[in-house]
Amino acid sequence: MPEAAYTCDPYLSLCHRIREGTRAFLERSQFKLLSISFYTRTINKHQDDVTEAMRTFELICSHSKRWKSLKLLAPLPWLWGALRNTTEESIPLLETVQISHIRMTLDDSVSESAVAAFRSFRSAPRLRQLSLEHGILTNAFLQGTETSFWNQLTYLGVSEAGLHDLIFLGALVHCQNLTTCKIQCFDRYPDYVLGHDRIVTLPHLEELTFSCLALDDAIPYIRSLRLPKLRDLSFLASSYVCYLGDSETADISLVSSLSDFFSESLCPLEKLYFETRFYLSTESVPIVTLLPCLYQIPTLRELTLADIPIMEDELLRALTVVSPTSGVLCPKLTCLHFPDLCSFSYQALQDFLSVRLRRSCHNSLSFAPLEQVVIETVRPNGLRSLLSSFDNAVLVKGLNYRPIGQTTQDNRRPWSQNVRDNTRFHAEW
């Protein structure tokens, strides 16, 4: 039985050896800076596991003045116990913090005590990169945090599940030195958010990633943000929703919001990435167009439309126009990745590739020739035969699709990590 394994001597002996090895390592490393990654078991079911993990981590905490990076994944009460004595003086060199917790049933008193421990990181003088992958943890930092803390960050990764969007935007407005931001938004946006007029300008942000249940969950942020230096924009979603192009909701569609965003930000975007976690059928969702967005980003070099049936004849024909020069859509586009769910014709695709893959007289062209095109298709044999003359520049892959409602085998949240069912300690210098 699993319970028996946790009470036998071999298990406790292993924990003891891990702890003694950790102690020896920390003593041998002397004054070197430490990057700590510490993961404990997924459920606080066996007290021995939590106790042994705590004892090992207490050794690591005694060397917190040497911490440069700290990454933790553990039950929330465990994290509170491990970090309750952390102060500004004990983490003078800490630059990176990434904290996740295992979901548990917590009463309010335990939750409040637990999140209080994390607020000490707001005093870390060198902290530049912060990742909090749960709304409770994010909320702990939102409450009473000084403007100077947000202003020192260059990387911010948060989950805002259960948070008020306006409160989070109120903190984000102070992150004036951010260069990278990743936002998990798993709650459906309320109607009042769509009507607010808060504008947040982040002058140095270059990379922005949204991880959400549906693509339209990112709309409140897209409507509020102004990012004049943005180069890389990604959307990772667990489903595809009609708000992308539903004509009856065009005023709140993602396409409409993105068009306004690009028009206002005037950013030099080079990479645009869409991905859903469902394979789709064209019978399940409407075909929509990205044309209003693409006309706003002439600097685009890479476009990925993973599992989203956006590529259709109108867009292919627009990309085929190369004269006059002012009419070229995405003139710097060199890499294109999209699915084929029979939403466009062979002729439109062939015409597009014949023009945009052209390499002769490169210096005289008004556009950059495509270097790579990847097509994931439900009709691979027909496309391979049609595109055989385009050599290695076009890669055709078979695509297995499912109707909406059936998930793929990999059903995890974006950017989640595989965590082994044991306690691991890793340090490097």
UniProtKB/TrEMBL annotation:
Residues 407-420 have a biased composition (Polar residues). Gene3D superfamilies: Ribonuclease Inhibitor. SUPFAM superfamilies: RNI-like. Residues 407-429 are annotated as: Disordered. InterPro entries: LRR_dom_sf. This is F-box domain-containing protein. It comes from Dendrothele bispora (strain CBS 962.96).
